[in-house]
Amino acid sequence: MEPIYTELATRIGLGQSERIAGLFRLIANNTEAKLLLALPGTAHEIANVLNLPEPEVGLMLQGLFVKGVVFPSTKSGVTKYKMCRDLVQFHDASILWPDAPREFLDLWQDFMEEEWPDVARNFNKIFPRPFTRVIPVGVSIEAKTHVLAFEDVREIIEKANVISVTKCTCRLTARKCDRTLEACLQINRGAEYNIARGTGRQLTKDEALGIVRKAEEDGLIHVVMNKQNVDQFICNCCPCCCQTMPVLIKHNISVIEPSRFAARIDPELCTGCGICLDRCYFGAIAVSEDDTTCVDTSKCMGCGLCQVTCPAEAISMVETRGADFVPEKLFN
Predict the structure, then answer these.
(1) Per-residue pLDDT reduced to its tens digit, 184-219
(2) Sign of the CA dihedral with 31 first, then 34, 39, and 42 last
(3) Rounded CA gap, 65 and 69, in Å?
(4) CB-CB contact of 136 with 300 (8 Å)
(5) Which of 23, 213, 235, 274 maximizes the CB count within 10 A of its CB?
(6) Which pLDDT does position 116 carry in this prediction?
(7) What φ, ψ does residue 146 adopt, rounded to 5°?
(8) How far apart, in whole angstroms, are the C-alpha atoms of residue 47 and residue 101?
(9) Cα–Cα distance between 328 and 176 in angstroms, integer?
(10) What does the alpha-carbon distance between residue 177 and residue 46 come to, in Å, rounded to a whole number?
(11) SS3 state of residue 186
């Protein structure tokens, strides 16, 4: 692999990965790679560094913005450009590159299968909390439970100024299921970014709520950034393709935190139909020796998918963690 692409991989902490270097090689030619390494800066500053005409640099920056490796920020009328800051940003943005060849998407999936579990394990050791958390589906919580605004998917949508939807980057590359592809919602700044790139479709609040309802029917789990201010995304994750769910389910790597709630089954109402066992991806629901269906709260992620389809309405969601469980900001 050419050293310049290894250097780009090093910029996001993965200089040892030939696959990540290969992804940069597929997305940027040699001149574009030099531009990425010259960031951050304005188009004028980068033109001086590379000794290229500013209009040419501007076109390259726009192209790399669409590809998902350059991010503009305008303050006081001056636009500065930055390279993707980390693996997650590189993954989520570049996979939505409209002209991404199948080779590029397949190489991403190869990385996720072969290298991501070990990278996730290292992330788990380095960072004090996971980056993301589950929020419950739109189900009825017991009256005594206080559902806060930042864990109510409907209220998050109602309060948003701008909403967009993109294809799920994980299902786009993994292709392990036929669940809804256009399912990742972006809120406010995240929505503005994807709309500007042409990778996101702007939604009304009713359209966004419709996507949420369809996601719940499909058995998808709502995931947001692990902080109280939900202003970036609402992912709707499956257990087989998602960045976080498979490494949690298969490898027990805590790259995602549960919601503040857990399922509880009323034995008087439960008919033992078994639907909830199939809906729980985390092995939190089991049938005991006396044929009672019960929940292991230590495994329950508090997503509420089991409650949505319970025909006997025997499942309720109860608060098991205090309001301060969700941090005000990431890594506070």
Answers:
(1) 999 999 999 999 999 999 999 999 999 998 998 899
(2) negative
(3) 6
(4) no
(5) 23
(6) 96
(7) -95, 105
(8) 29
(9) 35
(10) 43
(11) strand
Q: Which domains are assigned to the chain?
A: 3-114 (1.10.10.10), 126-259 (no CATH)
Q: Which of 302, 213, 218 is nearest to 263 (CA)?
A: 302
Q: Pick the closest to residue 154 from 69, 230, 68, 212 (CA basis).
A: 212
Contact 198, 93 (CB under 8 A): no
For residue range 67-108, list pLDDT tens digits in order: 999 999 999 999 999 999 999 999 999 999 999 999 999 999
Which structure tokens are listed for 246?
């498979």
What's the order of all strands across the beta sheet hosting 221-225? 201-202, 163-167, 182-187, 233-237, 221-225, 132-135, 256-257
Q: E strands, the chain, where?
A: 70-75, 78-83, 132-135, 163-167, 182-187, 201-202, 221-225, 233-237, 256-257, 261-265, 285-287, 293-295, 315-319
% of the chain surpassing 70 pLDDT:
96
Q: Is the pLDDT of residue 145 over 80?
A: no
How many Å is the maximal CA-CA distance in the chain? 77
User: Tokens 């202003």 map to which residue?
Assistant: 231
Conformational region of residue 100, where left means phi above 0, alpha means psi within -120 to 50, and beta covers everything else: beta
